[in-house]
Amino acid sequence: MAKPPTSGGTRPGGGRLPLARLRDFALVPAILLLVVVGALIDPVFLSSANITNVLQQQTELALLVLAEAIILIAGKFDLSLESTIGLAPALAVALVIPAASNGLGTELPAGLAIVLCLLTGLAIGAFNGLLILRFKLSAFIVTLGMLIVLRGLQIGITGGQNLFDIPPSVLYLGSAVWLGVPASIWISGTLFVVGIVALGYFRHGRSVYAIGGNTDAARAAGIRTDRVVWVVLMIGGLLAALAGLLMTGRLGSVAAAQGDGMIFTVFAAAVIGGISLDGGKGTLFGALCGVIVLGLINNILTLAGVSAQWIQAIYGAIILVALILARLTSGKAQD
Amino acid sequence: MAKPPTSGGTRPGGGRLPLARLRDFALVPAILLLVVVGALIDPVFLSSANITNVLQQQTELALLVLAEAIILIAGKFDLSLESTIGLAPALAVALVIPAASNGLGTELPAGLAIVLCLLTGLAIGAFNGLLILRFKLSAFIVTLGMLIVLRGLQIGITGGQNLFDIPPSVLYLGSAVWLGVPASIWISGTLFVVGIVALGYFRHGRSVYAIGGNTDAARAAGIRTDRVVWVVLMIGGLLAALAGLLMTGRLGSVAAAQGDGMIFTVFAAAVIGGISLDGGKGTLFGALCGVIVLGLINNILTLAGVSAQWIQAIYGAIILVALILARLTSGKAQD
Amino acid sequence: DSSSGGSGNQAGSGPQIGIDLPRADSDFWNSYAKYVPQFADEYDVNLMSPTNSQNDVSKLVANVQAMVSQGAKAVVMAPQDTGAIASTLGTLESRKIPVVSVDTRPDKGKVFMVVRADNRAYGQKACEFLGEKLGGKGKVIEFQGSLSSINGRDRSEAFAECMKTKFPEITIFEEPTEWEGAKAAAALQTRLAQHPDIKGVYMQAGGVFLAPTLQVLRSKNLLVPPTDPKHIFIVSNDGIPQEFEAIRKGEIDATVSQPADLYAKWALYYAKAAAEGKTFQAGPTDHDSTIIDIGNGLEDQLAAPLVTKENVDDPALWGNQIGK
Amino acid sequence: MTSQEQNAGSAAGIPAAEARDVSKRYGATVALHSAGIAVRTGETHALVGRNGAGKSTLVSILTGLQRPDGGEIRFDGAPAPALADRDAWRQRVACVYQKSTIIPTLTVAENLFLNRQSGRGLIDWRGLRRRAADLLAGYGVDVDPAALAGSLTVEQRQLVEIARALSFGARFIILDEPTAQLDAAAIDRLFDRMRELQSTGVTFLFISHHLQEVYEVCQRVTVLRDARHILTEPVEALSRDELVAAMTGETGRALAEGVARPPVPATAPVVLDVRGLRLAGYYDGVDLTVRAGELVGLIGSGSSGKVALAETIAGLRRADAGTVTIAGSNPKPGQVPAAIAAGLGYLPQDRHREGLVPLLSVAENATMPIAGRLGPAGIIAPARQQATAERMIRTYDIKTDGPRQPVSDLSGGNAQKVVLARALANDPKALVMVSPTAGVDVRSKASLLGAVNEAAAGGAGVLVVSDELDDLRSCDRVLVMFHGEVIRDMPRGWTDADLVSAVEGVEQP
Ligand SMILES: Nc1ncnc2c1ncn2[C@@H]1O[C@H](COP(=O)(O)OP(=O)(O)OP(=O)(O)O)[C@@H](O)[C@H]1O
Ligand SMILES: Nc1ncnc2c1ncn2[C@@H]1O[C@H](COP(=O)(O)OP(=O)(O)OP(=O)(O)O)[C@@H](O)[C@H]1O
Ligand SMILES: [Mg+2]
Ligand SMILES: [Mg+2]
What we know:
- The complex is a heterotetramer, with two copies of chain A, one copy of chain C and one copy of chain D.
- Chain C is an alpha/beta fold.
- Chain C contains ten helices and 15 strands.
- The longest helix of chain C is centred in the first third of the chain and has 17 residues, at 27-43.
- Mean pLDDT of chain C is 85; it is low at 1-10.
- By secondary structure, chain D is of the alpha/beta class.
- At the A-B interface, helix 6, helix 12 and helix 14 of A face helix 6, helix 12 and helix 14 of B.
- One adenosine-5'-triphosphate sits between chains D (51-52, 56, 98, 409-412, 415, 439) and A (5, 7-8).
- Chains A, B: Pfam families: BPD_transp_2 (PF02653).
């Protein structure tokens, strides 16, 4: 052999893993720094109430990022998540509430609402999968179209109204508190743990990385690539619907614009967290860190009372810098 | 020879070019169909006033699509165009109007406003290029960040207010009528012709295709790939700024949300028009057809009096179907 | 000339009237949309099918251009972006097509009549109510709309001005929300952690902020009757049925009812009158309001009552009529 | 520089191209360490070395794509032009790179005249196509100038690249592994073309892992090892073994010489049975059997359909008619997992495209088909995966930091061993391998073929699909495919000439 295979020159001979692992923890110092800054700006920052708030406010974003991260790792794309988070609960609620409350008049049993919501998400993911896998369309294009269609459907179904008359079952998950911590935090946290374990230690989870890394190789190695990607897209829709449930419960209504514009933040969080848009790269733990970083920045800007006029520019600039740092520190600085 | 060059099996050996040409005209039947449908729905559709309106309403979108199409052909991505179309005129106007009218207080000569606006667009493109080419960041990521930052900057500069007190020079281009046709139609039309000729018949234009098709090969052929891509990104910013000028002139003010959400439509039009997101493929004529198709659909839905409640869903569904058809007819049905 | 074949539900005879709805994603505007055909019937207006500009001024311009092509003799619109409509108003004026603007007052360009309640009055009324309830001191959080909305800005400015002059000891936290409930909920949570002694909430749009606010307060066990010292006083804005319901339950204390029914009613009335060539003068009207001259036209300033527990069941309120 | 000056230079014995003391580092990797080469005018010079020896790096420096960290490049005795002056470089040196520099979305004509479609002003497309047709005709290349380059075959693309390279007037041409993707007939045509050009005074630098090609077309050879220049000699002064020793730094015979193997008993069970298989456009009516312990070769030209056949057996394609029986069972057609479950091991054609997931570790790549067996309920127990992978690394002598190293860091030969380990991971009863040694240096080739022989000795039935005669030497018999049909079944003892003419479809007397 020409020379020891230490190409890249950044990693010491044997210790391949520690560094790869380290990269997963790349955002931890940033999070610590933000915590210190937050504490300096306002002592309230460290109060358990505030920390709980920050986490709870990020739960829906976290679930969307979880969904998008898995989809990106599989080498695909889903822009329509931001519409699913609104349409899935809207449709479910409209199916169970009376027409007088802007329902569709079907008045199905209220207990079914949660199931209907999750099924809607699943169905959207399945439909995306159908177009992407059977018709071999680009995921970007399909989900861009779906983003517009699904939002339009929500407006059509609800007549553009916010839905207020939400059955308690639908509100429960987003508003309950378990052991002193909001249920939504438990749920998102658990799902992230499940995701991390599944993608790290299960055959099917690893196959998601293989598919994103090289679909042809994965297929030749006996992975049912289409089936796995399809399942991933359906899980994505399911998670977005669950996020919609949590948001509905937290805000007490389904806004007609629920989730509108969120997809940009979802991508920002995923990329800051080290997920590659080329597929096959990044970890869910990193993605979670990305979500937390954005949540902390938001909270600190609010606590610091940054002027409303400049808050968006400052927030954007911080995101841009974070994106650049994430790209530069994640090894190869290549497109 | 191992095999005659008929891989793919769809095209006859020699007549390659005619078919490639035909593909450019793929949308022409769709446009004709829409015209017939429009005329049947309402005779007003064919009135010159209505046709002029449709075209004028699409001029700004057309310029953004022109910019995005060139950037996509070069194998890059620019999401920030939708913010440039607002920020560039806002900044230029704020620099020339008095502080009392929400200006920045610099009160530069009003005659400079157009130049300032175009320079802003150019500078944004150059900055994107710096990050993408010098720092080797992904274009998607950079321009996603810039999308947020530039919108934030506009809100910061204007305090979120619409700017009303627009100098007449800025209003001129978007509102003037030359030879009975709005100036903006002349301008966009001319720029498309310039673009089509430049990309079709000039060496530098062809190098954009070469770069998008295979950057390494283009570099090996002596094309200064970085420089060309940089210029393309700057032209993109410039065109977006010009679109901002036209929109400002047409609407008589710079809205704080000018261009917000437009990027989805821009991509839809470009892709429907046959531009590939993978780079190196598609023509500006096709992109223009995509813009016209969307404009006609919009106009027909309005004239047909489709219910406000469902118009967005219907519009979205039509776009989705158009995207799918565009993908299926554009030869390879592959991602 | 209704023979031009314009589509739509021409209920009545006479000149065609075009109407554009500003958005389909807010309860207030949807209520307005429901009243439009009802009053069109009542006044026998030859109404074209309403278009919707989805809060996008360039769509509004396109819609108006289409209406004019289809033969509209008067146009009712609600330009949410009051500057960007100037050139369109100029075109319409040159074609002698009168315009009735609902809810907003265009900055430039000729209008026949503005039908609008006074948004500054909303902020003022909210401020006075809260100031009084809080006894002139304490902390108040205000959910502003979007900085780019004129109505939002009017409310914010009037609220701030009134607080500064009348209740200088009240601290206000102004939260920009882009009209998003999620942003309001996040801000409320954060502020309550930072300042547990917040005693008042002013939300500029009940349709968007009501449910999230109640949800946050409920989770913090702060939804208590006004007699409880922990009670937080809430003033809302819009007058949708859900707000009335919350007032009855004692969850919020007041709202300013923005008269969606009157907006639709008088907009159509003035549009028809304009198309028929009638004119109006500044001065008091026969329906409890005043017409003022605003330079580029007239404005009928409709009454916007403050609704509290005392008058929440008044059947005249639009929020009590809808859905019945 | 005019050609007269060039000729004057060569007359004085000055090399056509020369690299002196060239060094190049990529991060911590030294790709070239004070290496040099001198190519005499008019000769065909071979450059050989193991994977990663630095050959392609030297090429990119000789063609002005990379700036060396140290050292200098001279053409005909004069210093090389500035890096930015691409046209000047292209007049001195033309290159067909290891990676294709054809732009698939543009026409052949435009590819030929890329970045010089016109002087100034508008491009005359019709004239361009005519010029392209003339150019192609001048080099005897039968390709439609108006065709999209993406629709060409590998060989056609390469010819277009050569024609383009020559059209700049350069008299020095570099070919970096041009034969790696060509079948035997195409290689012969390429060599004919090279000899023709050489007779007109063109100088070649030729890179290949096929040493017999070096002896076939080259006059002198330079060996690189570990980024250093080892030797430059006339080819006839160097035996094959000496050449291999120079490349590997080890002495001793390194080549698999078609190891003698005991004959497979007729009673051995059939592990792979293909009956009447048909796939429209690729092959028709194919029957073949492989017995346990048997090593069967399958050869054919580029359009023979042999790779499609292998892919069908592996479940990557679905046949229109016919059956595939693996170790007695009929897996569901078109399903790779079913084939694997039935006991098939498969080594795909192109390790970069279908073989490896570059970002994943050696362990994960190698254990991919057996991931289900590494723990209960679909769990992958990391310790078991590591242990399995370490055993594979030992068995197949894979040079790596450890099971956790990403395969993208491995050299070509070692990466190929990972793919082989993967194919053998489930102890297959039948093993199908496509081009198992493509682009792998001699040393790695020998150990790869050794591993295949061992698998056969262990009782697996092996089907080796390859154009490389070296891969087929130890086979018990070799099947020849021609235009989608198996036309010959040649037992051991064939001669190279027999086999090559069979592949060409020439009837044997
Ligand atoms: N772009 C690059 N970045 C970093 N290292 C590189 C790069 N290209 C080559 N190398 C390093 O340079 C060394 C020489 O690579 P090179 O491609 O020249 O080998 P080669 O002799 O052409 O091998 P092969 O026979 O496989 O083509 C390799 O070991 C590799 O580590
Ligand atoms: N960009 C790169 N960064 C780091 N190492 C590289 C890079 N490119 C190539 N290498 C290394 O260079 C060596 C050989 O590179 P190369 O890509 O030429 O091999 P290969 O393509 O696998 O082999 P072959 O082309 O002969 O089939 C390997 O060790 C490979 O890991
Ligand atoms: Mg190589
Ligand atoms: Mg090489």
